[in-house]
Amino acid sequence: DAKTTQPTSMDCAEGRAANLPCNHSTISGNEYVYWYRQIHSQGPQYIIHGLKNNETNEMASLIITEDRKSSTLILPHATLRDTAVYYCIVRVGEAAGNKLTFGGGTRVLVKP
Amino acid sequence: GAVVSQHPSWVICKSGTSVKIECRSLDFQATTMFWYRQFPKQSLMLMATSNEGSKATYEQGVEKDKFLINHASLTLSTLTVTSAHPEDSSFYICSARRLGGNEQFFGPGTRLTVL
């Protein structure tokens, strides 16, 4: 699976949009981009995933560049409960039988 | 739907004892379950993948005789840390893939402290 690069940490203001970048310059054509988050002392939570097109759900939006070498997770209106470590993962195929390899993630602190 | 539970949520044990951690899919059948370990301030590291009714596949560097995994039913997988030592103290997390589904759903984790 391709490696990803994320900022170690970032702060954002409550109520504002949080834009979390991820670089995956070696991504292959059959690899999907997944985002999970982990709130302190809890298990990871699935947020969103995509292949080529931008995706949106009730939690976030995922913007993937045309060359697929990077992506941005957007939390439209960050709340204090969004404080967590956010992991960007690329994985072959959509089948969850394939392993998830977690990198360092981005530690996001939402401030009042 | 797609809830995964773990029991216990935390456990403290003496060095040399064995500890069993349960992972259950509460409202779905899980053909595949994954076990992860997470040390403080670090990311999750996959330990093993287990498929119902077959032997688990362990990641490189994970001792299969020390971390015994049993996936006897479509809703239950267990991880037994045998002869635990202080260096085994960690946060253990399982995830499960729904039968016929795509996503992994994670449990809340079990914090193991070995004295």
Question: What does the secondary structure layout of this molecule look like, with pairings?
Answer:
The complex is a heterodimer of chains A (112) and B (115).
Chain A: E1 9-13, E2 18-23, E3 31-38, E4 45-50, E5 55-56, E6 61-64, E7 70-75, E8 84-92, E9 106-111
Parallel strand pairs in A: 1-9
Antiparallel strand pairs in A: 2-7, 3-4, 3-8, 5-6, 6-7, 8-9
Chain B: E1 4-7, E2 10-13, E3 19-25, E4 30-38, E5 45-51, E6 57-58, E7 67-73, E8 76-81, E9 90-98, E10 104-106, E11 110-114
Parallel strand pairs in B: 2-11
Antiparallel strand pairs in B: 1-3, 3-8, 4-5, 4-9, 5-6, 7-8, 9-10, 9-11
Description:
- The complex is a heterodimer of chains A (about 110) and B (about 120).
- Chain A has no helices and nine strands.
- Chain A is mostly beta strands and about 110 residues long.
- The radius of gyration of chain A is 13 Å and the shape is globular.
- The N and C termini of chain A lie far apart (about 35 Å).
- With about 120 residues, chain B is mainly β.
- Chain B has no helices and eleven strands.
- In chain B, the strands form two sheets. In chain B, strands 2, 4, 5, 6, 9, 10 and 11 form a seven-stranded mixed sheet that branches.
- In chain B, a hairpin with a 5-residue loop joins strand 5 (about 45-50) and strand 6.
- Chain B is globular, with a radius of gyration of 13 Å.
